[in-house]
Amino acid sequence: MQEKGTRMLWFRRLGALALLAACAGVALGFAGRLHPLGDSLSLLRMPLGVVCCLYLGFRLSAVLRFFALVAACAAFATTVPAMIGAPEGGALTVYSKNLLYRNDALAVLAADIRASGADVVTLQEVSHRNDAILKLLAAGYPYQHLCRFSGWSGVAVLSKTAFTAPARCSAQRGVAAAQIENGGQRLWVASVHLPWPYPYDHAGAADAAVALIAQLDGPVVLGGDFNIFPWAASARRIRQAAGSVLARPLRPTYSLYGVPLFLDHVAAPGGGHVVYRDLLGSDHRGVLATVRLAR
């Protein structure tokens, strides 16, 4: 009987430690501005929030219950709203797509982009193997700006209408930015492709992206593969530099060994409404957003 009581005590202690670890994981996921590891931990914010929420169904001390409740509320308050739909309608339609450097379904993808009626297109992972898509789209999108950061990681902006200022490239992978005119208003469209998060050089690329975007004069529309969830500090910094709001609803666009990831986003000054396209030869779904330019 005493042995059983000892085992139960150890189980409770281990359970309490697991809960504290989950709460700490949620808290550290908000520390991305202090260290890039925080952004990596932010990828676990939702599942850790679920763990904390499940613990609330068990008998806990007042202190543990408080920690679990605060962590769960913080996790869900900063993630779930992005998944709620936004009103349809807007001034500009953006099609954003990570092509996949070895995409061999370019004709099908180009047809989908044309059929979408998008005003502008933001492409990532434009490579020597798939850059033929630029020619396939040239008739409908004759104004094209490509920043080729390497043989496989080019980033591009394509537009139906002429660029109204010299196009820009960030100092390192990966932003391509071009200014267009829409309804008499000039705005910038930026295609973004950041590396994977820490320990990869996601933070350095995000710094370069912020440095470029902060220099752009006027409204900025973002579209791209951020390789991070939109609630991470790096993604929020980029949107803040652009003065843009995430278009919704947020949905997974990439599967990593069966785990759905929210990597591809569009943002605009007034937000916008998103629908998602098929893979079409890529490992990322396309993001088609109708966005509003007024805050």
UniProtKB/TrEMBL annotation:
Q: Where is the Endonuclease/exonuclease/phosphatase domain?
A: 101-284
Return one GO MF term.
Answer: endonuclease activity
UniProt keyword annotation of Cytoplasm present: no
* InterPro entries attached to this UniProt entry: Endo/exonu/phosph_ase_sf, Endo/exonuclease/phosphatase
Pfam families in alphabetical order: Exo_endo_phos
> Which residue ranges run through the membrane?
41-58, 63-84
Keyword list, A-Z: Endonuclease, Exonuclease, Hydrolase, Membrane, Nuclease, Transmembrane, Transmembrane helix
**Protein's UniProt name:** Uncharacterized conserved protein YafD, endonuclease/exonuclease/phosphatase (EEP) superfamily
Per the UniProt entry, what species is this protein from, by scientific name?
Answer: Yoonia tamlensis
Species lineage: Bacteria, Pseudomonadati, Pseudomonadota, Alphaproteobacteria, Rhodobacterales
